[in-house]
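User: These chains co-purify. Model them together.
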Amino acid sequence: MSVSFSTLLIEAVAILGGLGLVVGVMLVVAAKKFKVDTNPLVDEIVEVLPGANCGACGYAGCADFAERVVNEGAPLNGCPVGGFEVAKEIGGILGQEVAEGESQYPFVRCNGGLNCVDRFEYVGFEDCKAVMLLSDGEKGCNYGCMGRGTCVRACPFDALSIGADRLPHVNQNLCTSCGLCIASCPNDILVFAKESEKVHVLCMSHDKGKAVKESCTVGCIGCKICEKNCPEEAITVTNFLAQIDQDKCTACGICVEKCPQNTISIR
Amino acid sequence: MVEKALFAIFMDGIFIKNFLLIQFLGLCSFVGVTKDVKSAAGMSGAVVFVMAMASTVSYLLYTYILVPTNMQFLDLISFIVVIAALVQLVEFVVRKNIPSLYRSLGIYLPLITTNCAVLGAVLLNENAGYNFAQSVVFGTSAGLGYTIVMLMMSAIRERSTFVNVPSSIRGLPQAFFIALMLSMAFVNYFWVIPI
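Assistant: Joint model of the two components:
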């Protein structure tokens, strides 16, 4: 070989180095020319967001929410997971005041569980939606909670658990009000209830009184006793189910005492 | 080496030596980006550009720098540098001009850097001893062949999401079945156009 090894090495390094230099300079120029202006505020907001990417705000993840807040005026308190604390921090970054809203938690509107008779014994996949496929569930009541824990598995924060009474229980310390459990429930048992709303009807059944009594010992039979006794006229019975107007309710507890089925409860 | 007509090379790149279905190069993007037509088309556009540019630049680099200095053994590493730089360039442009496409392509855009299809096109050019025009035509047609298959695949996959298939097959397995059938169709070009 005519060329010595060292010359070969030097030439190879020179060529590759030169190539690298040319390419590098080209990329630097291109990076300058096609620079995308990212808003530093967006990055700051992403920092304070919980980063759960649960999608409860209605946007595609935390980064998207941060961008919408800055650019399109999405609500500052749009992140239900972060709650008021995060909303305040976002407000601090953007220089805006945030009013504190009342916290609300998912609430189980069924007291059936073991009080509700089973029509047959279900053996199969432990999931409410799976149970529902079998002639609307094993429960005698078609409106109630199936107790198979679909909501428990939907919760990314471990705030729900199925208790000994075969009903889901919400741990308010862990709950972030993201609403994923509410969306997952096939029977719409879970609803948002505000902290101040004390009195609730723990039944969803629109069945007639006789049918309810056959299947459930604590279901609403539509007897209208609560409606007649409520001093504030906050209760109306429509379609065999009592409903409470939370704006009028003063949580006096008369309806809870009078209800023959113990369907209404105060918390 | 018999000089090949440009048109023959063009058809070679698109059908007979189709990169995805005959040579099995660049399969990660084939499976990864074909969930919807829009991102498949964007990816294909980027690949066509990168392939054509890489063929051009690497031909010039090889003929005018590596061959005169007797440094042919540096071909692989220098081609990779060129391709990586081009991909970066495409990424800048796409990010600036089409942010939505940039988001939907995600990781696959920088992945063209290591996309064996681009390097494959460049190395096949070199191995076949193509001249400048032939190299450019082959690189471009290889990109076009990639585009055709990507569009077919994504269109089929988009529509087949509504098909009632067993849940165990849904998703990637289904994509592989589609790829299998497309590949069988393309292999037939060997018989239609004998090489």
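Chain A is about 35% helix and 10% strand.
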